[in-house]
Amino acid sequence: MDAAVDRLKQRVDPELLQLFEFHVQCRWPATKVARKFGVGLARVYYAKHKISRSLKREIQVLRDPLS
Predict the structure, then answer these.
(1) Distance from the Cα of residue 57 to its chain's centroid
(2) What domains appear along the chain, each with residue ranges and CATH number?
(3) Is residue 67 predicted with pLDDT exceeding 90?
(4) Which of 4, 14, 18, 27 has a CA positioned 20 to 30 A from the CA of residue 37?
(5) H-run or E-run covering 56
(6) CA–CA distance, 67 with 60 (Å, rounded to integer)
(7) Distance between CA atoms of residues 2 and 40, nearest Å
(8) What pLDDT does residue 54 have?
(9) What is each CA distance from 4 to 12, 35, 65, in whole angstroms?
(10) What angle (nearest 5°) sits at the alpha carbon of residue 46, between those of residues 41 and 49?
(11) For the chain, what is the mean pLDDT?
(12) How far apart are CA 8 and CA 57, in angstroms?
């Protein structure tokens, strides 16, 4: 999983990654993340969706590089 996150950090918007980390990994409520970073609630949910999807793809590529 760490390798997938490292690869993902090179390709995604750092702001989205930061929103994702606080909301998902630190388990902060989306409203708290939005207030802390001065973004809309939709932006936090978008970050969660975008990064989660990209992370799943990276994990799949690392497991089976030929697919």
Answers:
(1) 12
(2) 2-63 (1.10.10)
(3) no
(4) 4
(5) helix 41-63
(6) 8
(7) 28
(8) 94
(9) 12, 28, 12
(10) 130
(11) 93
(12) 10
Indicate whether this model's pTM tops 0.70. Answer: yes
Measured distance CA(60)–CA(65) in Å, rounded: 8
Q: Is 12 left (phi over 0), alpha (psi -120 to 50) or beta?
A: beta
- Residue for token pair 């994702």: 20
Task: Look at residues 64, 38, 31 and name the one whose alpha carbon lies nearest to residue 15.
Answer: 38
Q: How far apart are CA 27 and CA 16, in angstroms?
A: 15
Buried b (16+ CB within 10 A) or exposed e, 11-32: ebeeebbebbebbbeeebebee
What is the distance between the alpha carbons of residues 10 and 13, in angstroms, rounded to a whole number?
9
Query: Does 1 have pLDDT greater than 90?
Result: no
